[in-house]
Amino acid sequence: MNDEHNIPDHGFKAPKDYFDSLDARLFESIASEEIPKNTGFSMPNRYFETLDERIMESVLHKEDVGKVRPLFNRRFVVAVAGIAASLLLFFSLLQQSSLMSEGVEYIETTMLTQYIEEDVDIDLYDVVAILENEDGPEVTFENSLFTKAAMEEYLLENVEETTLIQE
Amino acid sequence: MIEEQTLVSALQSEEQKEAAFRELVSQYKERLYWHIRKIVLDHDDTDDVLQNTFIKIFRNIDSFKGDSKLYTWMYRIATNEAITFINKRAKRAQITSEEIKENAIKKLESDVYFEGSAIQLKLQKAIHTLPERQQLIFNMKYFDDITYEELSEVLETSVGGLKSSYHIAVKKITAFLKADETI
């Protein structure tokens, strides 16, 4: 047609990739018109005005008295191992029945998991923080040697907290 | 508002940490509150999760290496805290996390801190029919206007995957709202 009437092309240009994303953008704006933009949630009066102080109080208070018991603290591990050994000895002297071993199994699989999940306020970030505070520069696993930095990076980037708890 | 890099440096210095953290709380409390609220729904639960989130941020700010933006790092912590909160509660009640969320939705109808209309209540119901990840993507993109690139940092997913998930989520929500209109 242009050739027939010798009319030049309109000369307009659209931005690069404009048509590639047009459908998606149109779809979004059409769909959004049907979905309300406000959630309807509210909160108590002046909630945000007092929030800062409450957060600072809980953060600083937790830092002072509520710091997590380090999972890898040697003294803690020794103490737990000592208590566990004492209990085991006590029960094995008291009665040497199969019921005992079932009891120990039970503690390991349910109570311990429940205790860790519900009462121990520790997560991946805490584990990494503990590693940062440990004295030794390296951690040895069997024959392999890992630097703390490499292990921290690996934990933060590759391990899900929930997986850590479940496993 | 203090520039992010300056704030991070102050947060990682022993002398300025407390003052910088006050500034951080002041700057981000509302954004994080609303992000958590849309996941756990109840105000008091949100308050608990928000405090835990800030405690985690305070304790772990030294491990923030600046690979992502500070607030996407905080969003990630807040998201993990909210999900962990729901999972723990579900475990304690010996029900699934989906059931916990259903109960939270039911409670909204009588919640004094929910002033939404019928359509806003329907919207919350619709959002909670989505898989957890789609819920997060929809909430952050639709209500918080977070860019796909930022979302990608928070959820550690490709931008392409996020776009696709968001479109699916919007489609499902629109369909839910329309279907519900006919009932």
Features of the shown structure:
A: 167 residues; mainly alpha; two-stranded antiparallel sheet; 8 helices; elongated; B: 183 residues; Arc Repressor Mutant, subunit A; 2 domains
Q: How would you sum up this structure, described in words?
A:
The complex is a heterodimer of chains A (167) and B (183). Chain A has 167 residues and is mainly alpha-helical. Chain A has a domain at 70-166. In chain A, 65% of the residues lie in helices and 5% in strands. Chain A has eight helices and two strands. Chain A has a two-stranded antiparallel sheet with strand order 1-2. Chain A is elongated. Residues 66-71 and 162-167 of chain A have low confidence and may be disordered. By secondary structure, chain B is mainly α. Chain B folds into two domains: 1-115, Orthogonal Bundle (Rna Polymerase Sigma Factor, Chain: A); 116-183, Arc Repressor Mutant, subunit A (Orthogonal Bundle). Chain B is built from nine helices and no strands. In chain B, helix 2 packs antiparallel against helix 3 (43-60). Chain B starts with a helix and ends with a helix. The mean pLDDT of chain B is 91. The interface between A and B is large, with 40 and 51 residues.
CATH topology of the largest domain in chain B: Rna Polymerase Sigma Factor, Chain: A
How would a crystallographer describe the biggest sheet of chain A?
2 strands, antiparallel
Helical content band of chain B: over 70%
Quick one: overall form of chain A? elongated
Distance between the termini of chain A: 71 Å
Beta strand % of chain A: under 5%
Please count the beta strands of chain B (DSSP E, at least 2 residues each).
0
